[in-house]
């Protein structure tokens, strides 16, 4: 199989997390850039990355990169690339585009130039003058940044945050990619309790359970590249078999979510059922002021409501005060709170966060405030692990194990 450049696009702030995931899959030639991670891989890597990456949005094949200050440069640079090596004569190949700080600022015009150049290149190889575009879908993207054009083909289709289990949503839901990132950035391990007191549609608990049981997030969906000639079906079968073999569901999880909104809990229960996790997750209607999570050395991971997202600033402030009161009653727990509130520590009662990390919840700039409690003693971990069988040594089973204590 051939090696080529792949790009995992990510939400801003999650590049390092996605890079760690890629390395955990066994791909070591990794470069981190703003909003994306570039890595070397083959056809099987496309399958594995789409199935396994929890914090990336899409997996793109990098076809080429060149300076393009004029439409002629864009046309000739695009035409020089090896499009027929990937795109068959009957393929559907729409072009999407974006431009930032570049002389070629008209995105529709750039899309048209790229489409024309790809057609001309395919004519040279096939001798065909007209393409019906009735076959498999290959979405081409032209991205212009500082007069440099990057041409890619999208292997993913709908964003990877669309796992397939969330059919209904609450107001302003947290994306699955961000929820997974919060869990991966925490100290949580499967033997520890996890609690989200503002769980909404249940995304953090569900993503945590998938990490805890090492369930590949892409197992319940399909991808347009499954229909491509260049990626044989047996490679997808191999990647899915690896994923199923890597599931570790032979021990119980202690994961709880609560919310004051009963309709949100209904959505969470439906999502947990669709994810195949209804028997492992516990949801309840409960205000944070009455929350009493059980157990020691747990992780409280949450995205509390805030006015910019859900409307009422005063209610949001009250929720943070109640959250602060709750955390004071959990001396052995670690607490991870995603919020745009610049006065979060004061609002929660004055304790200073041990760490902060800038993240973007959609377009809203937030901080992940990390209040770190003590690590569990060795006998706590050993006792919890008596419920589990020996974990596989495959790189595909290491995502949850390798997450503790890293940023």
From TrEMBL:
Alphabetized PROSITE patterns for the sequence: N6_MTASE, THUMP, UPF0020
Top-level division of the source organism's lineage: Bacteria
Disordered: annotated span: 382-407
Every THUMP domain range: 45-155
CDD domains on file: THUMP_AdoMetMT
Alphabetical UniProt keywords: Methyltransferase, RNA-binding, Transferase
Pfam family, one: THUMP
The UniProt record lists the keyword Methyltransferase: yes
InterPro entries, per the entry: DNA_methylase_N6_adenine_CS (IPR002052), RlmKL-like_Mtase (IPR000241), RlmKL-like_Mtase_CS (IPR053943), RlmL_1st (IPR054170), SAM-dependent_MTases_sf (IPR029063), THUMP_dom (IPR004114)
Biological process according to GO: methylation
SMART domains: THUMP
EC number: 2.1.1.-
Molecular function GO labels: methyltransferase activity
First and last residue of the signal peptide: none
Protein name as annotated: N6-adenine-specific DNA methylase
Native species: Paenibacillus eucommiae
């Amino acid at each position: 199989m051939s090696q080529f450049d792949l790009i995992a696009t990510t939400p801003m702030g999650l590049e390092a997390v996605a890079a760690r995931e890629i390395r955990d899959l066994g791909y070591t030639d990794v470069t981190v850039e703003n909003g994306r991670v570039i890595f070397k891989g083959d056809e099987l890597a496309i399958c594995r990355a789409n199935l396994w990456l929890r914090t990336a949005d899409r997996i793109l094949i990098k076809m080429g990169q060149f300076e393009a200050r004029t439409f002629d440069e864009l046309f000739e640079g695009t035409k020089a690339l090896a499009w027929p090596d990937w795109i068959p004569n009957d393929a559907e190949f729409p072009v999407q585009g974006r431009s930032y700080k570049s002389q070629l600022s008209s995105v529709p015009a750039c899309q048209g130039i790229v489409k024309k150049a790809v057609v001309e290149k395919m004519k040279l190889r096939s001798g065909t003058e007209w393409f019906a575009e009735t076959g498999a879908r290959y979405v081409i993207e032209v991205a212009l940044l500082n007069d440099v054009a990057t041409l890619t083909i999208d292997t993913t289709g709908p964003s990877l945050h669309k796992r397939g289990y969330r059919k209904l949503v609450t107001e302003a839901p947290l994306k699955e990619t961000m929820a997974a990132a919060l869990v991966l950035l925490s100290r949580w391990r499967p033997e520890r309790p996890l609690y989200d007191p503002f769980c909404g549609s249940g995304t953090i608990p569900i993503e945590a359970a998938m990490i805890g049981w090492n369930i590949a997030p892409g197992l319940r969906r399909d991808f347009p590249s499954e229909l491509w000639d260049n990626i044989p079906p047996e490679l997808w079968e191999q990647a899915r078999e690896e994923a199923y073999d890597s599931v570790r569901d032979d021990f119980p999880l202690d994961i709880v979510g609560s919310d004051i909104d009963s309709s949100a809990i209904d959505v969470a229960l439906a999502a947990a059922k669709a994810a195949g996790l209804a028997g492992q997750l516990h949801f309840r209607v409960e205000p944070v002021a009455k929350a009493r999570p059980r157990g020691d050395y747990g992780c409280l991971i949450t995205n509390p409501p805030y006015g910019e997202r859900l409307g009422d600033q005063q209610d949001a402030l009250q929720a943070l005060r109640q959250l602060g009161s709750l955390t004071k009653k959990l001396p052995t727990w670690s607490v991870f709170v995603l919020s745009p509130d610049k006065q979060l520590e004061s609002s929660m009662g004055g304790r200073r966060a041990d760490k902060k990390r800038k993240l973007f919840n959609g377009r809203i700039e937030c901080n992940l405030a990390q209040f770190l409690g003590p690590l569990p003693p060795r006998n706590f971990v050993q006792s919890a692990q008596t419920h589990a069988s020996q974990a596989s040594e495959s790189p595909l089973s290491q995502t949850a194990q390798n997450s503790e204590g890293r940023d």
